[in-house]
Design brief:
binds coenzyme A, alpha+beta, 174 residues, 8 strands
Length: 174
């Protein structure tokens, strides 16, 4: 299980003892607005942790909790997973943060570390990201990472904006 570190964050694979920090974030309506449209119940977050632990065991990648080094609190989470959670599909990157930690550059900082993991350690040929079409903050993080808009596709029961970069795009930015 791979721990990643950045200047301000430690990214740790989901674990049972992350429940409190993850639920605090996932139960904020603003955080879930463009993801499921409703705050998590405790059961939702517990089920997510169980599902993600299984993915780490099967695949060796999935969701990390973002620990802020200064506070040692969970302030976000992000993933490298397969689009639509189907291993036949290309890899996808994703992120979410506790609302009091938005607009501090944390998503972009974590995104760079997760993308490096996908391209440099997993040798991914490409990396996708999708978001609700009104989720401009998330789309902005995708563009800052170097991804380009590829159109609208239906994923996760929503019409999503699709962004992607390939390996050559990634290497050209290093
Ligand atoms: C999306 C999210 C993770 C971004 O996290 P973040 O740490 O604030 O992102 P960053 O600070 O790295 O970058 C955000 C950028 O978007 C910009 N931004 C923020 N809100 C915006 C908005 N409503 N419209 C356009 N741009 C916006 C910021 O100015 C910043 O750009 P800059 O660095 O050029 O100034 C955070 O907003 C979040 O958790 N949202 C709820 C969960 C979610 O929707 N996750 C994505 C699902 S696809």
């Amino acid at each position: 299980m791979t721990i990643l570190t950045t200047a301000r964050l430690r990214l740790e694979p989901f674990d049972d003892n992350h429940f409190e920090g993850l639920f605090r974030m996932n139960s904020e309506p603003e955080v879930m607005r463009y993801i499921t449209g409703k705050p998590d119940t405790p059961e939702d977050t517990l089920a997510m942790i169980e599902r993600i632990k299984a993915r780490w065991s099967e695949l060796g990648y999935s969701w990390w909790s973002f620990f802020e080094l200064d506070s040692d609190e969970i302030i976000g989470a992000g993933c490298i997973q397969h689009l639509g959670r189907d291993i036949a599909n290309p890899l996808e990157i994703g992120w979410r943060l506790r609302k009091d930690k938005w607009n501090l550059g944390y998503a972009s900082e974590a995104a760079k570390a997760m993308a490096a993991f996908a391209f440099d350690r997993l040798n991914a040929p490409s990396l996708y990201a999708v978001c609700h079409q009104e989720n401009l903050a998330s789309a902005h993080v995708m563009k800052k990472l170097g991804m380009q808009y590829r159109g609208v596709e239906r994923w996760y029961d929503m019409e999503t904006a699709v962004y992607a970069m390939d390996r050559a795009d990634w290497l050209a930015r290093q």
